[in-house]
Each structure stands twice: as C-alpha cells, then as structure tokens.
Amino acid sequence: MDKTQAPVWVIADQIDCRILSVSFQLIGRARKLADELETSVEAVLLGDNVREQTQQLVAAGADTVYLANSPELYFYQPELYTEIIVKLAQKQQPQIMMLGSTSMGRELAPLVAARLKTGLTAHCIDLVLDKDRILEQKIPAYGGLLSIICPEKRPQMATIASGVFPKPEMDAERTGEVVELEVPIDVPRRIETLEVVREEPKGVPLESAPIIVAGGAGAGDPDGWQQIADLANTLNAALGCTRPAVDEGWADLETMIGQSGKMVSPECYIGVGLSGELQHMVGIVGSQIMIAINNDAKSPVFEKVDFGIVDDGREFVPVLIEKIKKYQEKKVTC
Amino acid sequence: MLNIVVCVKAVPDPKEACNIKIDPDTKTLMRCEVPFVVNPLDKNAMEAALQLKEQGDAHISVLSMGPPEAGNIVKECLALGADQGFLLSDPAFGGADAYATAYTLAKGIEKIGSFDVVFCGMASSDGSTEWVGPEMATFLNIPVVTMVKEIVESEGEFWQVKASLENGYRLMRVQLPAVFTVTRDLNTPRTLSFSGIIKARKKEISEWGIHELGVPAELLGVKGSPTVVSNLSTTESKREVEMISGTREEKAEQLVQKLAEAGVI
Ligand SMILES: Cc1cc2nc3c(=O)[nH]c(=O)nc-3n(C[C@H](O)[C@H](O)[C@H](O)COP(=O)(O)OP(=O)(O)OC[C@H]3O[C@@H](n4cnc5c(N)ncnc54)[C@H](O)[C@@H]3O)c2cc1C
Ligand SMILES: Nc1ncnc2c1ncn2[C@@H]1O[C@H](COP(=O)(O)O)[C@@H](O)[C@H]1O
Predict the structure, then answer these.
(1) Which of A12, A87, A126, A326 pairs as cysteine with A138 (C-beta 3.0–4.6 A)?
(2) Interstrand relation of A156-160 and A120-124 (parallel, antiparallel or unpaired)
(3) Looking at chain A, which runs of residues are DSSP E strands?
(4) What is the number of the ligand closest to the CA of A142?
(5) Domain limits, chain B
(6) Which of A114, A161, A125, A260 lies closest to B226 in space, CA to CA?
(7) Touching check for B258 and chain A: CB below 8 Å?
(8) Torsion angle, alpha carbons of B136, B140, B142, B147, to 10
C-alpha cells in the first residue's frame, strides 16, 4: 500500500454502550486530516451490544468502522483490547492513530504504542500536518508550544483530551462500511477487569459549568483553599484547580484544568492565586470573560485575562463573597 | 519473599518558582539551576513498597535513570527504607523520550533479576506522559494497572487492586509479576527519619551504563526515541487586560458589577 494512502485511525471509547463525545471530536479532526492527506478515516470500536453505535461513528465522519462486539469486551480488558488493536494495526498500517485522554485511552495508548514500537505524544492540544505531511503534535511546554513529530515510525500516535476539538456536524445520511472482527482466543488473561463502579460526581461538574472558579498554589493552605471553594459555592460555580493544588492535597485530580487535566469552556473563569502557566491556561477554551486575582502585579496571568485584581487572595476573597451575597439578595428582593 | 522494584525519577523541584522558559526572541530554552527532588508521585510508589515490607517479607530495589546527580534521590529512597539502589546513568541514555526511557528501565529491571512487583508513579511532574509504566510493562511482557488507588488483596500470585476512573474506579485482578502505577490516593508518604539516614550509609548503589546493560546504542537515548521535538514556538495572548483598582471594598464592588454586566450573576 502507498504509505501516504494509509488511513487515519480513531480508537473509539464507550462506557455502558454509549460512545464518549471525545471519540466524535477526534473523528471530526481525523476527517480534516484525512481529507488533506486524501485518505480515509477508520474507527475501531470494541464493546458489547455496540453494533448500532457504529452508525454514529460513520455520521461523525468515519468511512470504515472496525467492530469487535462480544460480552468479553463489555469492560475495557487491557490484554484483549491491546491484542485486537495491535493485530489490526499491523494489518491495516494506519499512518495516524488517535485516542481520547480518557482513563482507558491513557492506559491503552502506551500499551499499543510499545507493541507497535512507535512514538506516542501525550495530551496534545493541536494536531496539524507539516509541509512533509507529517503530523505535528502540539503540546504546551516552557511557556510556549512544542511541536513533536514521529518522523519514521508508524503509526504516529497521540492522545487528546475531550474539548480540544469541536464536535463535528453529524450527518445521519453518511454511509460507511462496518467490518466485524473476531475476538482472539489465545490471548493471555493475566489481568481482568472484575467490576467498574461509578460514583456520583461531587459538586458542579466542570465540563458543563457556566462559571468556573479555579484556585492555585497561592491559596497557601487548606483554609485558603476553603475560601476559594466558598467563592465557587456562592457563585454556584464549578471549582477547578492547578496542579500544585492537587499536589498539596487540597483538590482532587479530577478537578485539575489544563493540558494533562480537563479542557473546559465556561462563560466566565475566575482564577485565584495562580500564575497563568500555559499548561493550565490551555485548558480554558474560549471562555467569554476571564478574571484573575493575584497578589503580584507582575504575574504573567494578567496578560491572559480580561479583568485583573492585584490583592492578597486570602483577604480579598472573603470580601468578594460578601459583596456577591449582597448583590444576590438585592436581586431577589427587587 | 516479595521482590519489589520501585522506579523513581529525579525531577526539577516543582515548588521552585524558577521555571525553564522559552526565550521569546531566540526561541531557545533559558535554563536555570533547579535542584532535583524525587518525583512527588514516586514517593507514593515508595510508600506502597515500604508498607508491603512492613506487612511481610519483602526486598525493595530502587531504580532510577538519569544524570549522575540522580544518585541523590536514590540515596533518599534508601534512607526511607529501600534495601538496594540502582542508577542507570550514561550519556548514551540522554534525551530519551518515554519509549526509550521505558525500554532502558525494563533492561535495568531484567538485570536486577527476579522481581514480583514494579511500582511507578502515575506520572512524572516534568514529563507527565504517564507512558513509562505501561510501556515498561510491555517490554517486560507483564501486565500493568495504571492509576492504582487501593491495593485490596496482596497475598499470593493474584492481586486485586482498585484503579481510578472518571468518577469511580475499576476493580482489577492481576497475576504477578506486574507493574502498578500509583496515584496520590493510595497512601500518605512517610518522611525521612534520622535513623533511616544513618542506616542508608551502609546500603549500596550500583551504577550501570550502556556496557553493564549490554544494549546497542541505537535503542537508547535520542537514537532509541521514536519522537523528536521539531519546533518550539511562543504563543501570544489575545486578551487586553483591564486592571481593577481601588480599596479592597471598591475592587470587590467593581468586580461584582462586571460579573453582573456579563450576566453571570
Ligand atoms: C508536562 C506538564 C503538564 C502539566 N499539566 C498541567 C495541567 O494540566 N494543569 C495545571 O494546572 N498545571 C499543569 N502543569 C503545571 C504547570 O506547569 C504549572 O506549574 C502550574 O499550572 C502552576 O500552578 P499555579 O499557578 O497554581 O502555581 P504558581 O505558578 O506557583 O503560581 C502561584 C501564584 O499565586 C500567586 N499568589 C501567591 N500567594 C498569593 C496570595 N496570597 N494571594 C493571591 N495570589 C497569590 C503568586 O503570585 C503566583 O502567581 C503541568 C506541568 C508539566 C511539566
Ligand atoms: N528516568 C526515570 N527513572 C526512573 N523512573 C522513571 C523515569 N521516568 C519515568 N519513570 C517512572 O515512570 C512514572 C511515570 O512517568 P511519565 O511517564 O514520565 O509520566 C514515574 O512516576 C516514574 O515512576
């Protein structure tokens, strides 16, 4: 096969038979790349009772869907999933393979990449083709953007978080081919997913919140953090954070915003005690208004927001909470 | 006896304000001296090993790949209670991406010899790919569980662990030998004790280079890395900031005004 004609792949991710939105977003991007490369988009879907869902992948832009549908595949099973994808990739020779930065994608991608002896880039925030039609995988680093390429080995592999690429228009009329795969029987079973337990998410979810309050290292201690959490509460906002807040144990990893965390697009973002590091800021995609509160007038965060307040967060936040409460009361009474 | 290998990475202290930055004019990296520390999550990996050793008969080997200065963090882990230290250090290992790092570490583990469990952090604070654990497991041809938050059952050949998922966890049954990458939720790392530091003086660190590992140079470091950095660019902010000034009360009132105008409160 002519190397340039090799397909662009997306490994779809599903939970309880529902395809995750990141998979559609990736197909949307794969479609653009494939059109530029004049080749096809192929999706791989593994699961149980997911045959009907293949049409959604086609509607999003896939030309071919490889489907392995079996009760054994209901949960993500590392060895079985890896084996199916590796064997198929060795046969079909995709030039690009994209996976969502989901809990499955983050584990499956390196398992597949190491077996295929190829490179893999983590948590990309953009994928474009360079002049040699090689995939430039962009990640924020050192206050700028790094382009990473995998010049020789194939496929060129990347993981991308939900929210980096928009969801494509779904075209229910689109047609594509569905190819059913056999589940291999001779795969070792040294590891098995016995059970998956979902818990109710705590607080307002970041992904859908109109307002996000994010706190950083400047919170100082658990009391300082609690104030920022109270601010979020008062505004009925979701509470996000930077990495130091996770490292300090104030906040859960689930609430980290940025390159290796969540990508969010609120209407309003308020950052308290954080420096505006690109690895965090790339996680805020197209917020309409952005506000920063920082005690250092020279903090780079003030180059990245619409409104800035120089003050000690620990002193300012309680006052701000009071003022917001007053405004809310007034609004209710009149 | 349970043979445990803990992989620890020396990273620039994440708490140091002085970060490495791109010079906007030259588009090259402006480096500055930042001390190396144990990657934060690798302390949780160490703690997991130490707790297993307290529960039963275990031997802990610490393994790190890095520049000669990384020897200090291996020493720190010996002081925490590891039995033996291994440092993979050679100019030929330099510039490795996650793939080449995982490959080199896997070769190191094979040379250490018998092992039942390998603990890694979920991610390093500077590379943060999360790839090294799973890729290493692939090279060792053993199973891996990433993001382990609880070890439910650690008797015998089959372990059960809980691994974090979006809003929940998955319960995994794993046959040893296996690699586990751990999260902060797993435990609270202990701090160094004086007696530990004294005891560590007698423990040895083996330093291995390319000859000791016996691996061809083209599989290591830059040469063994499938990915390369092709470009470094700066980004420009598209926002025009308006600073809100006045007394604390005034600033808060103005901010509330802005929020109201934007219709978010
Ligand atoms: C590969 C990689 C991936 C990463 N991914 C992410 C990611 O996804 N998300 C993420 O957030 N980070 C990520 N990081 C970390 C990121 O580079 C930064 O280190 C981090 O975002 C900085 O967090 P911060 O702004 O809270 O802390 P700092 O940079 O330490 O800033 C603290 C700020 O608080 C201010 N301050 C201090 N005290 C007060 C006070 N009393 N009142 C008001 N302000 C105060 C200071 O002036 C300072 O500006 C990643 C790093 C790497 C290497
Ligand atoms: N150079 C290294 N030496 C030892 N262990 C490493 C090294 N690089 C990565 N690791 C291990 O792999 C984990 C994940 O790293 P990363 O893939 O860089 O996010 C770390 O927490 C370490 O346990």
Answers:
(1) A126
(2) parallel
(3) 8-11, 14-15, 18-19, 41-47, 64-69, 96-100, 120-124, 126-129, 135-141, 144-149, 156-160, 177-180, 191-198, 211-215, 238-241, 268-272, 289-294, 307-310
(4) 1
(5) 2-219
(6) A114
(7) yes
(8) -10
pLDDT grade, residue A2 (50/70/90)? very low
* pLDDT for residue B78: 98
The top-level CATH class assigned to A8-180 is alpha beta
pLDDT in the model for residue B73 = 97
Q: What is the predicted pLDDT for the residue at A155?
A: 98
Chain B: give the shortest CA distance to residue A307, in Å: 5
3-state SS, residue B89 = coil
What CATH class does B2-219 carry?
alpha beta
Task: Give the single-character DSSP code of B139.
Answer: H
Q: Which residues is A309 bridged to in the sheet?
A: A293
Q: Classify strands B158-165 and B168-175 as parallel, antiparallel or unpaired.
A: antiparallel
Q: Does A206-333 carry CATH code 3.40.50.1220? A: yes
Residue matched to tokens 């040469």: B223
- C-alpha angle A290-A293-A298 in degrees, rounded to nearest 5: 100
Contact indicator for B86, B62 with CB cutoff of 8 Å: yes
Partner-chain contact A323 B146, CB within 8 Å: no
Q: Does B26 touch chain A (CB under 8 A)?
A: no
Maximum CA pair distance of chain A? 72
Task: Output the ligand 2 site: residues, CB below 6 A.
Answer: B 7-9, 39, 41-42, 45, 64-66, 98, 101, 105, 120-121, 123-124, 127-133
- The C-alpha atoms of residue A68 and residue A25 are separated, in whole angstroms, by 21
Q: Which residues in chain B touch residue A332, judged by CB atoms under 8 angstroms apart?
A: none
Given a contact cutoff of 8 angstroms between Cβ atoms, the answer to whether B1 and B116 are in contact is: no
The nearest CA of chain B is from the CA of A249 a distance in Å of 8
pLDDT of A4 reads: 57
Please report, for chain A, the start and end positions of each structural domain, with discontinuous segments joined by +. Answer: 8-180, 206-333
User: Does A220 have pLDDT greater than 70?
Assistant: yes
State how far the Cα of A20 lies from the Cα of A261, in Å rounded to an integer. Answer: 17
Q: Residue B86: CB partners within 8 Å, gap ≥ 6? A: B61, B62, B63, B64, B74, B108, B112, B205, B206, B207, B208
Residue B236 confidence (pLDDT): 75
B225–A contact, CB cutoff 8 A: yes
What kind and span of H or E run contains B261?
helix B248-261
Count of beta carbons in the 10 Å neighbourhood of residue A1: 8
Bridge partners of B121?
B182
Residue with CA closest to ligand 2 atom 7: B9
pLDDT tens-place values along chain B, 265 residues long: 999 999 999 998 887 756 677 676 666 666 667 889 999 999 999 999 999 999 999 999 999 999 999 999 999 999 999 999 999 999 999 999 999 999 999 999 999 998 999 999 999 998 889 999 999 999 999 999 999 999 999 999 999 999 999 889 999 999 999 999 999 999 999 999 999 999 999 998 999 999 999 999 999 999 999 999 998 888 777 789 999 999 999 999 999 999 999 898 8
